[in-house]
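[Meeting: bench + compute handoff]

Bench side (C.D.) handed over the final construct sequence. Compute side (W.E.) agreed to return the predicted structure before the next meeting so the bench team could plan truncations. Sequence as handed over:
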Amino acid sequence: MKFRTATSSRISGRALAALLLAAWFLLTPFGASAQLAPQDPRAEPEAATGWQEKAPVTAQRHMVVAAHPLAASAAREMLRRGGGAVDAAIAAQMVLNLVEPQSSGLGGGGFLVYWDAKSKTLVTYDGRETAPQAARPGRFMANGRRRDFYSAMKSGRSVGVPGLARMLELAHAKHGKLPWRDLLQPAIKLAQDGFPVGERLNKLLRVSRASALSRAARAYFFDKTGNPWPVGYRLKNPALANTLRDLASRGAEAFYSGPISAAIIGAVNGAPGSPADMTYWDFSSYRAKERPPVCAPYRAYKVCGMGPPSSGALTIAYVLQLLEPFDLGKEPLNPNALHLV
């Protein structure tokens, strides 16, 4: 993915706040660039926190790659229990919703590319966020002028109708092997029992301003002195665990109707400055879509990926077409080759 038992359907106010917290962080800037220099055009929506060089890894049967080791572990467990790639991706995504809420979660959208080795077919799933029905071309204008990018991005009007839950449910219906409720259990357990705060989350919190966050966000991510929880601190989110239990029990419908959608609509429509105009119809009418992949030839290969509204596969196809006339493998460290790449 860049891809629990039976419980009460009641969701507490804290559960709704927890889910909204993940949604809000996904759809607003959360880093030094956004908080410390909102007018800087070079600022990044999510600040970089360094990189690590690692040795290559090989595998014979399967491999899971995720942004957090706990997410990869949850996905691997699904594979060990007889699940398929989609089962593993869903388990990983639900854990990421908890441990890396600044990067992904149920409050946003996503894409999924699925290769069926048995039938030799490739399909893609579109769970991109959609604009509310009331959205109009002048949405980000003020007094006839375009609003500042960062103030517009942090406003309620920048939030789209989330599509991730519907997309994952659609992909699971087509390709899943394990019960839907089982896929959410690792995330539920981690949310209930706690997970160690990772280095990346801690760094992003340290460069952010606690005062710029909502009261619920400050109470969850920062201690009483205003400092972010340190690396290794066991952070619990029983409210999110309750929300995930409801999603495990009732499926994606739990997200798109009832208290969860009502709380999200209330939050974005009540956002200060530029409130949104989202409705219950926007949520109830949302549908994820199965789309054909975008493919292009490159030498002896056929390179495929997610088509619009994603731009990744199209961009890669164009770049590969430009590079194809050049023999990059002949002198890979040649300055001209490095310049082309």
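W.E. noted at the follow-up: The longest strand covers residues 110-116. C.D. will use this when planning the next construct.
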